[in-house]
């Protein structure tokens, strides 16, 4: 028999839905940077937009599992999907096109191995460059408003959208 805390999806679903979203943005940017020289904005937009169909499919299913069977079963379902996906990812995914003998899309020349730069320094340098652009501040502001209203008001206080 389920106790009351097992049947409250509002306690678990916000955490479950935000964590993949946070990692998807970074993963998408990394994939685009490593695999594409041309059409980077379009590709990143497509990858970002592809999260919506996944949410439309999985979140109602997880909410249904949580309501009817409890949050533990929903969590085990997620773990099972991940366990099935890991071998495919390990066998089929590559870090860069070079591992397959290919070039990045839009790059007509062979790439030269560059010296490894400290990733923190590189990120801070890129952020410093970006803050000089008005487009950066427009995007940062719009993402702030969207994130604050969605995750802050809807997710935390359960105010309906």
What can you see in these coordinates?
By secondary structure, this protein is mostly helical. Helices cover 68% and strands 0% of the residues. The protein is built from six helices and no strands.
Helix content: 55-70%
Order of helices and strands: HHHHHH
* Structural class by secondary-structure content: mainly alpha
> What is the residue-mean pLDDT, rounded to a whole number?
78
Beta-strand fraction estimate: under 5%
Please give the domain count: 2
Overview features:
161 residues, single chain, mainly alpha, disordered N terminus, 2 domains
Q: Could you outline the blueprint of secondary structure elements for this entry?
A:
Blueprint: H1 13-35, H2 40-49, H3 51-69, H4 71-92, H5 119-130, H6 134-157
Helix pairs in contact: 1-2, 1-3, 3-4
Give a brief description.
With 161 residues, this protein is mostly helical. It is 68% helix and 0% strand. The chain folds into two domains: 4-113, no CATH class; 116-161, no CATH class.
